[in-house]
Amino acid sequence: MNRDFLTNGIAPRAMLLKTIVMCSCALAAIALGAPAAGAMKPRAENAPVVAPSGPLVAVVSLGAQRLSVYDKNGQVLTSRVSSGRAGYETPQGVFAIIERNREHFSNLYDDAPMPNMQRITWSGVAMHAGGLPGYPASHGCIRLPLDVSDRLFELTKLGTRVVVTDGIAVPVAFEHARLFNVRSAEPGGSVGGSVAPMVKSLPGAMSLPMMLGAVVATPVQASVPASLPPAAPDVFADRPADVSRAAWATELLGRAQKADAFARSAKASAATAQKQADRAMQQVLASERARSAHAAKVDALEAALQRSSNAKVVARIELARTAAVARLAQTLAETDRLRAIQEQTRNDANRMAAVAGQAANAKAASGALAREAGRRLKPVSVFVSRATGRLYARQGFEPLFDIEITIDNPAAPIGTHVFTALETNVAEKSVHWSAVTAVGNPPSEVPVPRKSRAKNQPVEASTPTLTAAAALDRVGIPEVVRQRIGEMLIPGSSLIVSDHEISSETGKGTDFVILTR
Q1: C-alpha distances in angstroms, 221 versus 19, 227, 228?
Q2: pTM of the entire predicted model
């Protein structure tokens, strides 16, 4: 994204090592309240990269011009950065990686090269390799040394959480009674679901192989708030006990691919059958035109016989009429034969069209099931907004639902906090969480929620404590919603609590984007 990338260039690795400027800022732990363990361990910038353990959280400190990446055991990567200069400031808030490209060129700034590009907004903010003069110099992107950007690209993936904040923010291990716990979805239960076979044998020799096993979800109604849609069925409920969720998702994808191949074959066969029926109809029409011509010839000859009294002429017309009648009889027989063929080809075309239609339905059903299984393997993201008094849920970059919740003292700031599920244990119904607070948004700049503005509710005189624990203490989520979210929790799932609303950057192909400044 940076126009000056071309002039600064990417220094060779040797030059990068010579020009490293060590940041003197101390990584002070943020007081999040009630941590289960201390702040995660820092790591030297030039230390060898280790494979991450569990989901990652990347934190960019604009004040310190530094990136730090954490897994469940602590810091796995750190580096200096160069963020947006005056007039092109890098936005602060909560993001996720939504696009990755090893070799990318800016579509805004003269095709400037952006190696190891990892986009966090569709409007043009990304992390990538670029020049680092020692101060903010980009057009809004987060520049990294080339070798660091390469290592970061290897560590992260789509959906990796990125927190951009003015101050130093460090994730800490965290426990709180109001965080979500994993729940098991019971088939046919109040908030669970079941799956049922949909694809049946198709008529004739073109019947769809039952090996496809395509199914369609049948949601079960639940006693839930009107604004909470019925839960999607558990697409893994019917998998064999010895098959993992990931393996079952792969199986469903394979079935969907087979259904797609069969649907394409059935469609092609239906098209061929329709062409044959069309040709047969054209032959029938041509034969009928010939019949009409021969019949008209016979009629003309018979009329000529009535008008003629010359014996020789009558004899000649009789011979011609006899031949015309014979040709007419042959044409009538041929027309009848072609009509029978046309009727058969029309019936075949109709049958093949029905087969193709059912195959297309099977393709759609099995494809939807495979997509749902793939989505269920992705972390769920939950966002609680004090500004709107609502909880929003997304999974696989797609919205699930949003619902009204309660927040104690809604006119008072709550801060912006990101909680990440590091490990889940279904048997023990437990989750290990980390928490990080976005630093640098003074309470005076936090928007007042709409409800409070409407009711003219005053803010409490005392300054609130903007810790993660204090934020969760004030958030009330209906139990049925907690159950729904608990059924979807996997490592990497997250809860964001913020004073702010969802940014307009949140949309198709994104996780939540929360702008704090």
Answers
A1: 63, 13, 11
A2: 0.68
